[in-house]
Structures are given as C-alpha cells and as structure tokens.
C-alpha cells in the first residue's frame, strides 16, 4: 500500500459513508471507525498517517481521543485533524507536527477540505513543531486552555528575551513548571495570562523534526495486574477481539473485516541496557525486567553506558538523567551522534521535579520519560510499547508479503539487518524529503543500491550510505526477483559496519572544520535550489546567508542573533546533502 493513509473516527456512520465516497473519488486511502472502543486497535493495525475526528476541541469524542492517545507511547504522536464548528484554536496548531495539527470548519465541503488535507499532509515534514503569534489576554488564556484540553507536552513562552519573559512547561496537558518574574507554579501562569498583550510561542515536545523524536510519557498507577488486556478509557479489549474498518467504494458500502495480527514470537529475549549509578535501583530493575523475559545489562554512568552500547547489540536503553562523570543527557548526545547507536530506542528515568531536563532530552531524541515513582508493572508495559513498531515490522518481514514501513520509526540499519536475517529477496523502495532510494536484495544480501535527488544520482556504497543516513524515509518492500546490476558484493552486516564508519568519519571532519575553515567552501547551485524547496524551514535563512551571500558561519551567528549550535546543525545538513563542500585554506 502506498501513499498516505487516513483513518477517521466518527459515531455518525451516515456522514462518514458520504465523506468516504468523496475521499475515494479523489484517490485517497480513507477508512473509518464508528466505535471509539476500536480506535486503538484500528490505529495499531492500519498505522495511519493522519487521524480525522469530527467534533470541537471540547466535545466528548475529541476529548476521548486526546486522553486515550496520550496514554500510549506508541501512538501518542499521531497527527489529528478535527472537523469542527469552532476553529478558533487553529492559530495554535499551524506549525505543529503531533496531536491536533489542523482544524477544518464544518459543514464538510469535499473539494475544499480534501484539498486542504492534501496540503497539510505535504507540509507536515517541513513543520518545525513550533507555533507563535501575538495576542491579548483572552488569546493567551485560550492558548493555555488549548494545551490543557488537547493533552499537549511542550513549553509556552511569553515575551521571550524581554524583562517580562515567562515560561510554562506542560506534560500531557498538565502544568509541570512555570516561572514569571518572582513567581512560580500556577501563580506565575495566572499572572502571565493576565497580561494585556504579549508575544507567545509554543514549542511542542516530541513533534520537532529530527531523528528519534518521540513523546513524553507519564505512567500512572495501574488498577490491576493483568498485562494481556489493553485498557482503553475503562473498556477492556481482549487481544483476539475482531476489528473491522469501514469504507465506501463506488457508492457501495462495504465492511472490510480484518483481524489484528498477533505480535511475532521473539527468538531471543529483549536486550535491555540499564544505566544508573544507584546500585539498589539497578538490582531491583534487573530482577523486574528479567522476570518479564528481558536480558538486562547494567552500567554505572553515561561514559560506561555509551561504551557498553557500542560493544553490545541492545534493543533499548533506560537511563537515569543525573549521574556522575557523564549524565544521561551527555550520553544521549553521544549515542545520537554515532551512526552505530543512533537508532536505539532510549527512555529516561528521573526523580527531579524540574521538567526542563526532560524537555532537553526529548528534543535530542529520547523516546520517553518515566518518573522514578512509576509503579513497576506499568513501567514494563510502557517499555514494551517502545518496541512495538519494530515488533510489528518484524511480523511484516516474516510474512513474506509486500509491506510498507516507516524507516524513520524502526531505523534503516535495523530494517536491513532483519531483511538479511529473513533472507529476503526483493526490492526496497524508500523516499524521504530529500531523495528516493532503491535497494535490491537476494537471500538477504544487498546486491545494488541507488539514490536520486533531483537530477543527481548515486550508486553502490554511496547510495547505500545515503539510505543509512536518511532520517524520515517511508519504504515499501516488494518480494520477488528484479533485474539490477550487482554493484555490492559484501554481506549486508559488513556494508552497514563500513557505512557507519564512513558516515562517522564524515561527521568528524565536519565537526572539526565547520567553524574554523568553513570560509573556504564550494556551493553546488543546483543542489542548493533543491534544498530551498525541501530543506527544513528553520534552517533556510542560515542556508541562504551561507550559500547565496557566502557569509562565513561565525559571522552568521552575529548577523541573525542565532546560536552556534543552530548554525552548526545547518552546516552539517548542507554538507551531508552535498550542497556545500568544505575546502581547507
């Protein structure tokens, strides 16, 4: 199945039947559910790119959706579009990538609304996860209410970089930290909102563009010990309960029955790396996760954790944020900067009340945050949910049938390794915002690879490495034999190892020479023209100064009043894509 998938939730079946007819006529894949109890199962089975819900933000059905999604790490970041009468909150959603990302005003107008949905889905990959504006106190109050009602996680900033600056941090709609002048907590938030007018900015957590971005999770107490039943808003759904998506084709209403696929049985236990300097906690967690079938390895701090991660083949890492020698934040940066470990799912534990450290961790690529006060069985359940995308993809690989998978979610290295283990023969087609990729496999080994960006192409190792470096690709695997030259002869695992080494060396050279000799550089004008169209919006102004006006990076910092890290990230992206080539003086 190719193209975006849309799942709608609406208790009015007659309305959905009419809407589905319109979507089908416009060539969009559209399915709907009328039973909200089936929503979680439907999302996990269909894996939609977008969830459409009919109702205002405050209505019962959208509130059910917000609450249910926020409780499950594997689906909490799903983008939602509301079909609603009240679109006043649309000013708070325009730049966001998760949760409510758009609001279409009722009544439903097929041509207009489907066109708006197409535009929204096309621009999602370019969104920054930030929305900003200016408003009176009523707007500020509505912004806070929007964040609370939609269960958003992120930071609201009022009047940034002024003596009047205030910040409020939310986790799943709950106020965690607020500071304004000499005030804190709810009192600070009330005073901020009471201002006659202010510049406002909301930066979502888990929606920012980048590898590893996930969601913030608070795991609450569990009312029972049953782990084989998923509880959704008080309704227990057994794993074997039938699930049906509804669709309308050629004016004939059809019901496509589809049983949810069982998770594949693992040939080996989940390999967990636990990084914490608290020996008693390590012993307790070792016992807990071992009881649930995990194979646990421990490390005492960030330095040891990073070194252990490089030596072993782990499925996931849980780490404390605050440790001696190197904290979890420092370890995370090392893991994400190294191609050998950048795909590892990572969650953090912390007992600190200040939520800023967790926000920093999320923006760097941590998938989840667990308070140290979390009850143990729910913690195990949520860690398992972190692995669900790979478990589902593994089932698809083993089925021998064609399948589509989010490479950004499971990781390109992981996908190629599992195809190799399965001795798969076929063609892997992938596409991200920058290029398209084709990889041809026989008995699990990659025989040929090519990548195309505009009129530029690469083959063999260069194309293979480009796929390893892709950050937001969607891929389709088609079993079978396809004609292709044999440009690669090494085993897949060796190609991955060599590719990681090459990519790491490129990154090292970039870091060493970026702000020192970057005044000696060449710009490929054709590739820069492509970059202006598809590059991340937040980096385009820096890229313009560097590529068009040839301003040295160190001077860009002063020109735009931006951070050295922002300039460094832009330069790394330009060089990674071949837009800029550095030359030493």
Layout of helices and strands, plus pairs?
Elements: E1 5-9, H1 13-25, E2 29-33, H2 39-46, E3 50-54, H3 60-70, E4 79-84, E5 99-105, H4 110-123, E6 130-136, H5 137-149, E7 154-158, E8 166-171, E9 174-180, E10 183-184, H6 185-193, E11 197-204, E12 229-232, E13 235-238, E14 243-249, E15 252-258, E16 271-275, H7 279-291, E17 295-299, H8 302-311, E18 316-320, H9 328-337, E19 346-350, H10 356-364, E20 368-371, H11 376-386, H12 388-399, E21 403-406, H13 407-410, H14 412-421, E22 426-431, E23 436-442, E24 445-453, E25 456-459, H15 460-469, E26 474-479, H16 492-513, E27 521-523, H17 525-534, H18 540-547, H19 553-560, H20 564-576, E28 580-582
Parallel strand pairs: 1-2, 1-3, 3-4, 4-5, 16-17, 16-18, 18-19, 19-20
Antiparallel strand pairs: 6-11, 7-8, 7-11, 8-9, 9-10, 12-13, 14-15, 21-26, 22-23, 22-26, 23-24, 24-25, 27-28
Helix pairs in contact: 8-9, 9-10, 15-16, 16-20, 17-18, 19-20
């Amino acid at each position: 199945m190719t193209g975006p998938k849309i799942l709608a939730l609406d208790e009015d079946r007659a309305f959905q039947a009419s809407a589905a007819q319109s979507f089908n006529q416009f060539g969009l894949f559209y399915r709907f559910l009328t039973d909200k109890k089936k929503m979680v199962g439907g999302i996990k089975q269909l894996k939609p790119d977008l969830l459409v819900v009919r109702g205002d933000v405050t209505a019962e059905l959208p509130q059910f959706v917000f609450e249910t999604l926020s409780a499950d790490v594997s689906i909490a970041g799903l983008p939602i579009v509301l079909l609603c009468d009240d679109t006043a909150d649309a000013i708070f959603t325009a730049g966001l990538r998760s949760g409510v990302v758009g609001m279409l005003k009722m009544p439903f107008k097929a041509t207009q609304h489907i066109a708006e949905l197409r535009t929204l889905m096309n621009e999602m990959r370019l969104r920054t996860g930030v929305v900003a504006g200016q408003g009176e106190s009523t707007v500020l109050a509505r912004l806070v209410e929007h964040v609370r009602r939609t269960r958003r996680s992120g930071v609201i900033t009022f009047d940034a970089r002024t003596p009047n600056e205030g910040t409020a941090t939310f986790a799943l709609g709950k106020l965690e930290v607020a500071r304004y002048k000499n005030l804190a907590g709810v009192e600070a938030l009330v005073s901020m909102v009471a201002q006659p007018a202010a510049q406002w900015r909301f930066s979502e957590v888990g929606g920012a563009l980048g590898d590893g971005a996930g969601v913030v999770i608070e795991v609450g107490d569990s009312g029972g010990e049953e782990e084989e039943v998923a509880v959704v808003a008080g309704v227990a759904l057994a794993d074997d309960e039938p699930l049906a998506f509804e669709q309308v084709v050629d004016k004939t209403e059809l019901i496509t029955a589809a049983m949810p696929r069982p998770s594949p049985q693992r040939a080996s236990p989940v390999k967990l790396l636990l990084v914490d300097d608290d020996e008693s906690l390590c012993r307790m967690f070792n016992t807990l996760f071992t009881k649930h079938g995990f194979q646990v390895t421990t490390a005492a701090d960030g330095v040891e954790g990073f070194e252990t991660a490089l030596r072993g083949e782990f499925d996931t890492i849980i780490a404390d944020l605050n440790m001696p020698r190197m904290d979890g934040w420092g370890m995370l940066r090392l893991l994400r900067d190294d191609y050998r470990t950048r795909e590892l799912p990572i969650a953090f534990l912390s007992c600190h009340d200040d939520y800023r450290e967790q926000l920093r961790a999320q923006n760097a690529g941590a998938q989840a945050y667990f308070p140290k006060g979390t009850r143990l069985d729910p913690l195990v359940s949520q860690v398992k949910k972190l692995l669900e995308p790979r478990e589902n993809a593994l089932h698809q690989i083993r089925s021998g049938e064609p399948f589509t998978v989010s490479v950004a979610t499971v990781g390109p290295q992981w996908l190629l390794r599992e195809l190799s283990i399965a001795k798969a023969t076929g063609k892997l087609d992938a596409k991200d915002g920058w290029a398209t990729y084709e990889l041809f496999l026989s008995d699990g080994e990659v025989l040929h690879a090519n990548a195309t960006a505009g009129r530029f192409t690469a083959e063999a190792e260069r194309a293979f490495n480009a796929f390893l470096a892709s950050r937001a690709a969607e891929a389709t695997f088609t079993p079978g034999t396809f004609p292709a030259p044999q440009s690669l002869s090494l085993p897949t695992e060796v190609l991955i190892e060599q590719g990681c080494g090459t990519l790491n060396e490129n990154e090292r050279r970039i870091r060493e020479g970026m702000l020192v000799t970057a005044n000696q550089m060449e710009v490929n004008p054709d590739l820069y023209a492509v970059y202006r169209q598809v590059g991340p919006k937040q980096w385009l102004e820096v890229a313009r100064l560097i590529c068009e006006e040839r301003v040295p990076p160190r001077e860009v910092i002063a020109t735009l009043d931006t951070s050295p890290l922002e300039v460094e990230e832009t330069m790394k992206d330009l060089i990674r894509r071949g837009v800029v080539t550095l030359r030493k003086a």
